[in-house]
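Input/output pair, single chain:
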Amino acid sequence: MARDIVIGYDGTDGAKSALAHAIELAKELGDRLVIVFGYEPALLGSEVQDLRQALKELGDTHLHEAERQAREAGVEVELGLVEAGAVDGLVAVADQRDARMIVVGSYGERPLTGAILGSTPHKLLHRATVPVLVVPIDD
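Output:
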């Protein structure tokens, strides 16, 4: 029975590697990809609406890039533009869809930011209720 594989995609090299692996998994398992871009603008300043719109447009661009690649590979795809932080958005979508797993790249934040605040993959490993596949960047 086909299930959903939720993938976090933000256009980074890590996300591109994760997408390639998620596409292969979806093809092998006969699953559908649900490609998610989570965005959560800071709530300070009067520029919040402009920032929110810019992030939404960036997410839309990245999602359609990923959608094109998955469709060319013959994989069924749905897109999710979620106004929430990456971890919260991915966990929520995975839970709502009873997903098989969440797939993310191993690198998204700058190393220092990830060390101080915690990386998205690390947070997902502790918060997700489904398996998490963390894909390293392809060389």
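The beta strands are 4-8, 32-38, 77-82, 101-105, 132-135. Residues 112-117 have pLDDT under 50 and may be disordered.
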